[in-house]
Design brief:
By secondary structure, this protein is α+β, with helices and mostly antiparallel strands. It has 14 helices and 8 strands. The protein folds into 2 domains: 146 residues; 148 residues, Cyclophilin (Beta Barrel), CATH 2.40.100.10. It has an 8-stranded antiparallel sheet. A hairpin with a 3-residue loop joins strand 3 and strand 4. Helix 10 runs antiparallel to helix 11. The longest helix is centred in the first third of the chain and has 20 residues. It is globular, with a radius of gyration of 22 Å.
Amino acid sequence: MLAYGTIFKDDVKDELFRKMSETENEDLAPYIIKSFQFFKEGTICRKLTDSVRTIVQRYNKSKNQESGEMVQDATLANIYRAYVETLSALKNKVDAENQRYIFLILSEFTGSKDPSILDICFTGLNDKIYEKDRKEIQMFLMLDYKELSYPKDRDAIIAFINEFGELNMKESENILKSNLNSVNYDICKASASALKKITGKEFTFNAKPKKDFDWEFIKTLPSKRFASIITNRGTIKIEMITNFAPFTVQNFVKLAEKKFYDNTIFHRIVPNFVIQGGDPLNNGYGGPEFSIRSEFQGFWFREGAVGMASDGKDTEGSQFFIMHSPHFHLDGKYTLFGYVKEGQDVVDHIMPYDFIESITFSEN
């Protein structure tokens, strides 16, 4: 459906809307919705809104969901994510009245508490076409932030903090300074970074990234030096560099042995660069609710290198990537903890939404 809309655009409007009304497969709906972002006529946004509302109401009725939460489960998150992504793509193809219409919807979804939806909304609202609305944006962001609670909404809190810094929101200074007392390292780090953007000053905090110095467990790592990542495309066997990234390897092994990675998808595929997975939310915004420290070494990010995704030093969690080809600009900036021993052909054939079935470990 996505390719169909990309190629034929407005010519398939009626067929796409018919598919949306007829399908009982809510997993298909996001792909139909995303196809509208390639249309030339942006006023399709209003009819799209009606269709999405109908799908959501039908789904909630079938699941007997009556919670006051906007995003009640992963299925709705995927539908709403596709919806706001499409509206954001259409906002520059409409007149001022419809730009305002899209603005109001994006503003509504900043209350979703879903970090991936928030990221799309923030990016859309930061567009220069809404520059005159900055004060209004800042006002409802402050209101929505107050509805968040830690630890349940940790990732959403961090998304808001980053947006406060992006918008240079002086009104958020007291909130950000208060956050420096948080026990969560990521919240502190994001708040200090936002404060620097707003005030130009450096701020310190006491929270530290997770330190799991499990020496007895680390002693067992040589017997688990090889990780076999079993995917729906085949097996990728990795030799991990336990001597040079022991805490990263320990974290990876512990998570895998708890089945943390089972049935997670490869959510990011960049041809001739990387495949990335390890996110329990399957959208690039999830993790294990903690960060570990970085372990930079002098190894090269060549083809088959396995590294940890991060938002900066000491922010690694569970997401990892595997290189399609050499990209040495990553050297010393990301933790590298292994190389593909067997199955690089599997890496090269991984497609979006391919998934990890399980991970096992062996000595050789």
